[in-house]
Design brief:
single chain; alpha+beta; disordered C terminus
Length: 188
């Protein structure tokens, strides 16, 4: 059947079908353009995040980041000192990286400690935070040479765990009881 033999109704139906196809095409084109714009926006955001992360890793040293963590921990828990340790490759020794709030920084930084005979090491061994309210009489502790033995020292230690692997630990010092069974677990 050629175009001249078609009825007016058939031509109207064909025109309607063509309009619907054009509309579908335009709609799919709009969806495609919208998806492209969203993808471009997301890509730009990821590039900005990557540039920010790159800037931070290039401009901030590990020591600055760890010092920030130590200071914030001391502020939140209201402690008087903090030492951050890394677990050495032998998985038996903790080496100090950062000391904050201690007049004995040089002494602490010069002394690595064994996980077997230190409060901080006990947190690494057990894989959880521990509190020692009577640090001066507890035989597990390790006295760092050149630092005083404070009778009323309290110690809070916690391992640094990422994806189930312990990378180091934090040791916080306080002169007040950190926890008593009759009080909640915070320093007031």
């Amino acid at each position: 059947m050629n175009d001249s033999d078609k009825t007016k109704e058939q031509l109207i139906n064909e025109i309607q079908e063509l309009r619907e196809r054009i509309s579908e095409y335009e709609s799919s084109e709009n969806v495609r353009r919208f998806a492209e714009m969203a993808l471009e926006r997301r890509t730009k955001q990821q590039e900005e995040l990557l540039n920010t992360a790159k800037f931070l890793t290039e401009s901030i040293s590990l020591k600055e980041v760890l010092t920030f963590i130590a200071n914030k921990s001391m502020e939140i828990l209201r402690t008087r000192g903090c030492t951050l340790y890394k677990l050495d490759d032998d998985r038996k020794t903790l080496s100090p990286l950062v000391v904050v709030g201690s007049e004995y920084e040089d002494e602490v930084l010069s002394e690595s400690i064994s996980i077997d005979d230190s409060f901080t090491g006990q947190a690494v061994i057990k894989g959880k935070a521990l509190i020692f309210n009577d640090a001066d009489v507890n035989p597990i502790g390790h006295q760092i040479p050149g630092t005083p033995n404070n009778e009323d020292e309290r110690i809070l230690v916690a391992p640094f765990i990422i994806d189930g692997t312990i990378f180091g630990a934090m040791c916080l010092l306080s002169l007040i009881h950190i926890y008593e069974p009759t009080r909640p677990l915070y320093i007031s």
